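S2.1 Query sequence (cysteine-S-conjugate beta-lyase)
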Amino acid sequence: MDLVEGRYEINFGDLERKLADPKVKILFICNPQNPTGRCFTKEELVRMGELCIRNNVMIGVDEIHADIIYDGHKFVPFCGISEEFANHSVTFINPAKTFNVAGFRTAAWFTHNKEIYRRMMNQQTYKKGVGRNIFGNVALMACYNHGDDYADQCVAYLNETKNQAVTYINEHIPKIQAINPEATFMIWMDCRGLGFKTQKELKDFMFKDARVLLNDGTTFGEKEGTGFMRFNFAAPRAVVMEGLKRIKEAADRL
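Output structure tokens follow.
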């Protein structure tokens, strides 16, 4: 993906070249995308799906942030686009992000393709990866069957926090550009304007000078993440704004 005027866009030319490599067997699509916060449009998903099918590349779709979508954007389930896409993909879901139940081990996957299902189950059983438990099953069903009202309130709160945080960064910390997320509760921060020569200097600045602990951008790719940090704003708004205030004060001292 390329950063174009403050928004990440899929480089379809580059993607097509890579999918044409016979060594490539699967494309993982993270939608909504972490860490950039993109919520891919139906047109983008269709184009990715068609390229994969044309090159006989399987598709894995991580939709763990699917509930957390902001104003002006719409989540499109990949397997719901067409029967062909449903039979050529595996979808991964988890209520953990929306409902904060990661400790219950509530992740799940599904596919419409019986052969893929058989192979996935064989592999999962062989590696003893079936971590289901009665508490996780109950938690998953409770979230999806009874959590609509909570999810709506949660997303509304996150949306307002996101708006305030992005506005604050772009107005008061001019050396940092906040990539306005369309989904998720992460802000991808372009910190290259701070002028640090290495990623270690940037991390030390955030932790030692600003006294905030952010996710290192290079966790998401050495080349693509250098000069970037990920800010998690799934917290009380006062805590989020205090963290940004600390970053501003530290940046002003540079």
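Residues 148-172 form the longest helix (25 residues). The chain is about 45% helix and 15% strand.
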